[in-house]
Amino acid sequence: MLLKVGDLARRTGLTVRTLHHYDEIGLLKPSGRSEAGYRLYSQADVQRLHGIQTMRQMGLALSDIGALLAGEGMAPERIIGQQIRSLDQQITQATELRGRLTMLRDGLMAGADPDMGNWLEALALMTTYGKYFSSAELKHIFQNWNLIEADWLVVKDLVRSAMDRQLAPDTPEVQALAYRWMALMLHWMNGDLDLLERWGHMFRTEPTTQGRNHAPPGDMIEFIETAIKLRMALLEKYLTRDDLRALGHVPYTQWAALEEDVQQLLGRAVPPHHPNARAAALRWNALFDQLTRGNPPLRQKLVAASANEPLLQAGSPLSAPVRAYLHAALAHAAPVTKPTSAKTTLSPTH
What we know:
By secondary structure, the chain is mostly helical. It has helices at residues 5-12, 16-24, 43-57, 62-70, 76-110, 116-130, 135-164, 172-188, 193-205, 218-235, 241-246, 252-267, 275-292, 296-308, 310-314, 320-330; strands spanning 3-4, 32-33, 39-41. It is rod-shaped, with a radius of gyration of 34 Å.
Protein backbone atom coordinates (compact mmCIF):
# COMPACT_ATOMS: atom_id res chain seq x y z
CA MET A 1 0.00 0.00 0.00
CA LEU A 2 1.38 3.34 -1.04
CA LEU A 3 0.67 6.52 0.89
CA LYS A 4 0.23 9.96 -0.57
CA VAL A 5 2.26 12.74 0.96
CA GLY A 6 -0.75 14.16 2.81
CA ASP A 7 -1.61 10.79 4.34
CA LEU A 8 1.99 10.26 5.45
CA ALA A 9 2.10 13.73 6.97
CA ARG A 10 -1.04 13.06 9.02
CA ARG A 11 0.25 9.69 10.26
CA THR A 12 3.63 11.01 11.34
CA GLY A 13 2.67 14.47 12.58
CA LEU A 14 4.98 16.14 10.08
CA THR A 15 3.97 18.81 7.62
CA VAL A 16 3.73 18.28 3.90
CA ARG A 17 6.30 21.04 3.53
CA THR A 18 8.76 19.06 5.68
CA LEU A 19 8.31 15.92 3.59
CA HIS A 20 8.84 17.95 0.42
CA HIS A 21 12.05 19.33 1.93
CA TYR A 22 13.28 15.82 2.80
CA ASP A 23 12.67 14.84 -0.81
CA GLU A 24 14.50 17.89 -2.16
CA ILE A 25 17.65 17.21 -0.10
CA GLY A 26 17.60 13.49 -0.88
CA LEU A 27 16.90 12.40 2.68
CA LEU A 28 13.56 10.70 1.96
CA LYS A 29 12.59 10.23 -1.67
CA PRO A 30 9.22 8.66 -2.44
CA SER A 31 9.30 5.24 -4.08
CA GLY A 32 6.93 6.37 -6.80
CA ARG A 33 4.53 8.95 -8.12
CA SER A 34 0.92 8.80 -9.17
CA GLU A 35 -0.25 9.46 -12.71
CA ALA A 36 -1.01 12.99 -11.54
CA GLY A 37 2.56 13.38 -10.26
CA TYR A 38 1.82 13.09 -6.54
CA ARG A 39 4.47 11.55 -4.32
CA LEU A 40 3.78 7.99 -3.17
CA TYR A 41 5.53 6.39 -0.20
CA SER A 42 6.03 2.66 0.37
CA GLN A 43 6.28 0.77 3.67
CA ALA A 44 10.07 0.92 3.36
CA ASP A 45 9.85 4.70 2.97
CA VAL A 46 7.73 4.89 6.13
CA GLN A 47 10.29 2.84 8.06
CA ARG A 48 13.08 5.10 6.82
CA LEU A 49 11.07 8.14 7.93
CA HIS A 50 10.62 6.66 11.41
CA GLY A 51 14.39 6.27 11.60
CA ILE A 52 14.85 9.88 10.53
CA GLN A 53 12.38 11.07 13.17
CA THR A 54 14.14 9.06 15.87
CA MET A 55 17.51 10.56 15.01
CA ARG A 56 16.01 14.05 14.85
CA GLN A 57 14.65 13.55 18.36
CA MET A 58 18.21 12.71 19.40
CA GLY A 59 19.20 16.12 18.09
CA LEU A 60 21.18 14.99 15.06
CA ALA A 61 21.43 17.37 12.12
CA LEU A 62 19.77 16.39 8.84
CA SER A 63 23.17 16.24 7.14
CA ASP A 64 24.44 13.76 9.76
CA ILE A 65 21.28 11.67 9.43
CA GLY A 66 21.68 11.53 5.66
CA ALA A 67 25.31 10.48 5.98
CA LEU A 68 24.40 7.75 8.47
CA LEU A 69 21.61 6.37 6.31
CA ALA A 70 23.89 6.42 3.28
CA GLY A 71 26.72 4.75 5.18
CA GLU A 72 28.95 7.76 4.64
CA GLY A 73 30.64 10.32 6.87
CA MET A 74 31.57 9.69 10.50
CA ALA A 75 30.95 6.37 12.17
CA PRO A 76 27.64 6.17 14.06
CA GLU A 77 29.34 5.93 17.46
CA ARG A 78 31.29 9.14 16.78
CA ILE A 79 28.17 11.03 15.77
CA ILE A 80 26.31 9.74 18.82
CA GLY A 81 29.27 10.61 21.06
CA GLN A 82 29.33 14.10 19.59
CA GLN A 83 25.63 14.44 20.28
CA ILE A 84 26.06 13.24 23.87
CA ARG A 85 28.69 15.94 24.42
CA SER A 86 26.36 18.51 22.94
CA LEU A 87 23.57 17.37 25.25
CA ASP A 88 25.92 17.50 28.24
CA GLN A 89 26.72 21.10 27.35
CA GLN A 90 23.04 21.93 27.06
CA ILE A 91 22.36 20.29 30.42
CA THR A 92 25.17 22.31 32.00
CA GLN A 93 23.83 25.52 30.51
CA ALA A 94 20.30 24.69 31.60
CA THR A 95 21.51 23.88 35.12
CA GLU A 96 23.39 27.19 35.26
CA LEU A 97 20.31 29.05 34.06
CA ARG A 98 18.09 27.27 36.58
CA GLY A 99 20.47 28.13 39.40
CA ARG A 100 20.54 31.80 38.45
CA LEU A 101 16.78 31.96 38.03
CA THR A 102 16.34 30.33 41.45
CA MET A 103 18.60 32.91 43.07
CA LEU A 104 16.81 35.67 41.20
CA ARG A 105 13.41 34.38 42.33
CA ASP A 106 14.53 34.02 45.95
CA GLY A 107 16.01 37.51 45.92
CA LEU A 108 12.83 39.03 44.52
CA MET A 109 10.62 37.09 46.93
CA ALA A 110 12.70 38.38 49.84
CA GLY A 111 11.76 41.94 48.88
CA ALA A 112 8.46 43.63 49.55
CA ASP A 113 6.36 43.47 46.38
CA PRO A 114 9.20 44.28 43.93
CA ASP A 115 8.21 46.48 41.02
CA MET A 116 9.20 46.02 37.39
CA GLY A 117 12.23 48.26 37.86
CA ASN A 118 13.59 46.03 40.62
CA TRP A 119 12.91 42.95 38.52
CA LEU A 120 14.74 44.30 35.48
CA GLU A 121 17.64 45.52 37.62
CA ALA A 122 18.00 42.13 39.28
CA LEU A 123 17.81 40.39 35.91
CA ALA A 124 20.51 42.65 34.47
CA LEU A 125 22.78 42.08 37.48
CA MET A 126 22.33 38.31 37.30
CA THR A 127 23.27 38.40 33.62
CA THR A 128 26.40 40.39 34.45
CA TYR A 129 27.36 38.06 37.30
CA GLY A 130 26.93 35.10 34.96
CA LYS A 131 29.73 36.41 32.75
CA TYR A 132 32.23 35.89 35.57
CA PHE A 133 30.84 33.18 37.87
CA SER A 134 29.03 29.87 37.71
CA SER A 135 25.69 29.53 39.46
CA ALA A 136 27.38 27.38 42.13
CA GLU A 137 29.94 30.11 42.80
CA LEU A 138 27.23 32.77 42.95
CA LYS A 139 25.20 30.67 45.36
CA HIS A 140 28.24 30.36 47.62
CA ILE A 141 28.93 34.11 47.44
CA PHE A 142 25.35 35.12 48.19
CA GLN A 143 24.95 32.61 51.00
CA ASN A 144 28.16 33.82 52.66
CA TRP A 145 27.11 37.46 52.52
CA ASN A 146 25.41 37.28 55.92
CA LEU A 147 28.80 36.39 57.47
CA ILE A 148 30.16 39.86 56.80
CA GLU A 149 27.16 42.11 56.13
CA ALA A 150 27.06 43.90 59.50
CA ASP A 151 30.83 44.52 59.60
CA TRP A 152 30.86 45.45 55.92
CA LEU A 153 28.35 48.26 56.32
CA VAL A 154 30.42 49.70 59.17
CA VAL A 155 33.68 49.52 57.22
CA LYS A 156 32.11 51.06 54.14
CA ASP A 157 30.90 54.04 56.16
CA LEU A 158 34.35 54.45 57.70
CA VAL A 159 35.99 54.38 54.28
CA ARG A 160 33.58 57.04 53.03
CA SER A 161 34.45 59.17 56.05
CA ALA A 162 38.17 58.82 55.29
CA MET A 163 37.53 59.82 51.69
CA ASP A 164 35.50 62.85 52.74
CA ARG A 165 38.40 63.92 54.97
CA GLN A 166 40.79 63.40 52.04
CA LEU A 167 43.08 61.07 53.97
CA ALA A 168 46.00 59.62 52.01
CA PRO A 169 46.07 55.85 51.29
CA ASP A 170 49.28 55.38 53.31
CA THR A 171 47.97 56.95 56.53
CA PRO A 172 47.54 54.60 59.53
CA GLU A 173 43.76 55.08 59.58
CA VAL A 174 43.30 54.20 55.92
CA GLN A 175 45.74 51.30 56.15
CA ALA A 176 43.76 49.92 59.09
CA LEU A 177 40.62 50.16 56.96
CA ALA A 178 42.42 48.47 54.07
CA TYR A 179 43.29 45.60 56.40
CA ARG A 180 39.69 45.27 57.57
CA TRP A 181 38.42 45.45 53.99
CA MET A 182 40.82 42.72 52.86
CA ALA A 183 40.02 40.50 55.83
CA LEU A 184 36.27 40.79 55.27
CA MET A 185 36.54 40.06 51.55
CA LEU A 186 38.71 37.00 52.12
CA HIS A 187 36.36 35.74 54.81
CA TRP A 188 33.43 36.26 52.43
CA MET A 189 35.15 34.21 49.72
CA ASN A 190 36.37 31.52 52.15
CA GLY A 191 39.96 32.55 51.49
CA ASP A 192 39.67 31.89 47.74
CA LEU A 193 41.97 34.52 46.23
CA ASP A 194 41.07 33.60 42.66
CA LEU A 195 37.37 34.05 43.38
CA LEU A 196 38.07 37.35 45.14
CA GLU A 197 40.16 38.64 42.24
CA ARG A 198 37.41 37.78 39.75
CA TRP A 199 34.88 39.56 41.96
CA GLY A 200 37.10 42.64 42.08
CA HIS A 201 37.70 42.51 38.33
CA MET A 202 33.96 42.38 37.71
CA PHE A 203 33.35 45.46 39.85
CA ARG A 204 36.15 47.37 38.16
CA THR A 205 34.98 46.57 34.64
CA GLU A 206 31.19 46.50 35.06
CA PRO A 207 29.90 49.93 36.18
CA THR A 208 26.35 48.57 36.55
CA THR A 209 27.45 46.48 39.55
CA GLN A 210 28.85 49.44 41.48
CA GLY A 211 26.83 51.10 44.22
CA ARG A 212 23.99 48.53 44.15
CA ASN A 213 22.81 46.33 47.01
CA HIS A 214 25.42 47.69 49.45
CA ALA A 215 28.16 47.38 46.82
CA PRO A 216 30.76 50.17 46.95
CA PRO A 217 30.60 52.90 44.30
CA GLY A 218 33.40 53.28 41.80
CA ASP A 219 35.24 56.07 43.61
CA MET A 220 35.33 54.04 46.83
CA ILE A 221 36.67 50.98 45.01
CA GLU A 222 39.45 53.06 43.49
CA PHE A 223 40.32 54.66 46.84
CA ILE A 224 40.48 51.48 48.93
CA GLU A 225 42.23 49.46 46.22
CA THR A 226 45.02 52.04 46.16
CA ALA A 227 45.54 51.45 49.88
CA ILE A 228 45.26 47.67 49.51
CA LYS A 229 47.83 47.60 46.71
CA LEU A 230 50.33 49.26 49.02
CA ARG A 231 49.80 46.52 51.61
CA MET A 232 49.81 43.68 49.09
CA ALA A 233 53.03 44.88 47.48
CA LEU A 234 54.73 44.71 50.87
CA LEU A 235 53.19 41.38 51.90
CA GLU A 236 54.14 39.76 48.61
CA LYS A 237 57.78 40.49 49.35
CA TYR A 238 57.52 37.91 52.14
CA LEU A 239 54.51 35.70 51.37
CA THR A 240 53.65 33.61 48.33
CA ARG A 241 50.12 33.33 46.96
CA ASP A 242 49.88 29.93 48.64
CA ASP A 243 50.84 31.59 51.93
CA LEU A 244 48.10 34.17 51.47
CA ARG A 245 45.59 31.41 50.71
CA ALA A 246 46.66 29.60 53.89
CA LEU A 247 45.85 32.53 56.18
CA GLY A 248 42.87 32.09 58.47
CA HIS A 249 40.29 34.66 59.51
CA VAL A 250 40.10 36.46 62.84
CA PRO A 251 37.04 38.72 63.19
CA TYR A 252 38.00 42.34 63.68
CA THR A 253 35.82 42.47 66.78
CA GLN A 254 38.20 40.06 68.53
CA TRP A 255 41.19 42.30 67.83
CA ALA A 256 39.19 45.35 68.93
CA ALA A 257 38.17 43.64 72.17
CA LEU A 258 41.79 42.75 72.90
CA GLU A 259 42.89 46.33 72.16
CA GLU A 260 40.27 47.71 74.55
CA ASP A 261 41.15 45.28 77.35
CA VAL A 262 44.88 45.97 77.11
CA GLN A 263 44.29 49.72 77.00
CA GLN A 264 42.50 49.34 80.33
CA LEU A 265 45.46 47.42 81.74
CA LEU A 266 47.79 50.17 80.54
CA GLY A 267 45.51 52.81 82.02
CA ARG A 268 45.69 51.11 85.42
CA ALA A 269 49.46 50.66 85.08
CA VAL A 270 49.16 46.87 85.45
CA PRO A 271 52.67 45.42 85.02
CA PRO A 272 53.32 42.91 82.18
CA HIS A 273 54.02 40.10 84.65
CA HIS A 274 50.55 40.42 86.24
CA PRO A 275 48.22 37.43 85.64
CA ASN A 276 45.74 39.63 83.76
CA ALA A 277 48.50 40.83 81.46
CA ARG A 278 49.70 37.28 80.88
CA ALA A 279 46.14 36.19 80.09
CA ALA A 280 45.85 38.98 77.50
CA ALA A 281 49.15 37.87 75.97
CA LEU A 282 47.88 34.31 75.67
CA ARG A 283 44.74 35.62 73.94
CA TRP A 284 46.97 37.48 71.51
CA ASN A 285 49.03 34.37 70.88
CA ALA A 286 45.87 32.32 70.26
CA LEU A 287 44.48 34.87 67.81
CA PHE A 288 47.72 34.89 65.90
CA ASP A 289 47.71 31.09 65.80
CA GLN A 290 44.18 31.30 64.42
CA LEU A 291 45.35 33.76 61.77
CA THR A 292 48.23 31.52 60.67
CA ARG A 293 46.34 28.26 61.31
CA GLY A 294 49.12 27.16 63.65
CA ASN A 295 51.72 27.26 60.86
CA PRO A 296 55.11 28.32 62.37
CA PRO A 297 56.85 29.10 59.03
CA LEU A 298 53.91 31.26 57.95
CA ARG A 299 53.97 32.98 61.32
CA GLN A 300 57.66 33.77 60.95
CA LYS A 301 57.10 35.25 57.49
CA LEU A 302 54.41 37.56 58.84
CA VAL A 303 56.68 38.58 61.69
CA ALA A 304 59.47 39.43 59.25
CA ALA A 305 57.09 41.50 57.14
CA SER A 306 55.96 43.42 60.21
CA ALA A 307 59.44 44.00 61.53
CA ASN A 308 60.71 45.35 58.22
CA GLU A 309 57.66 47.21 56.87
CA PRO A 310 56.37 50.08 59.03
CA LEU A 311 53.37 50.56 56.74
CA LEU A 312 52.02 47.15 57.74
CA GLN A 313 52.28 48.09 61.40
CA ALA A 314 50.53 51.37 60.62
CA GLY A 315 47.46 49.44 59.56
CA SER A 316 47.42 47.12 62.55
CA PRO A 317 44.16 46.84 64.51
CA LEU A 318 46.34 46.77 67.64
CA SER A 319 48.10 50.01 68.50
CA ALA A 320 51.87 50.15 68.95
CA PRO A 321 51.69 50.57 72.79
CA VAL A 322 49.35 47.58 73.04
CA ARG A 323 51.62 45.41 70.89
CA ALA A 324 54.66 46.38 72.96
CA TYR A 325 52.81 45.60 76.20
CA LEU A 326 51.62 42.23 74.92
CA HIS A 327 55.10 41.45 73.70
CA ALA A 328 56.47 42.05 77.19
CA ALA A 329 53.62 40.15 78.87
CA LEU A 330 54.10 37.16 76.59
CA ALA A 331 57.62 36.72 77.93
CA HIS A 332 56.04 36.09 81.36
CA ALA A 333 53.20 33.90 80.10
CA ALA A 334 53.47 30.15 80.64
CA PRO A 335 53.01 27.63 79.32
CA VAL A 336 53.42 29.07 75.83
CA THR A 337 55.10 27.34 72.93
CA LYS A 338 57.18 30.13 71.48
CA PRO A 339 59.79 30.33 68.76
CA THR A 340 63.36 31.06 69.84
CA SER A 341 62.73 34.80 70.00
CA ALA A 342 59.78 36.42 71.73
CA LYS A 343 59.71 38.81 68.81
CA THR A 344 58.36 36.06 66.59
CA THR A 345 55.04 36.20 68.42
CA LEU A 346 54.45 39.71 67.11
CA SER A 347 51.85 39.83 64.36
CA PRO A 348 52.81 41.90 61.33
CA THR A 349 49.37 43.38 60.91
CA HIS A 350 47.99 42.98 64.38
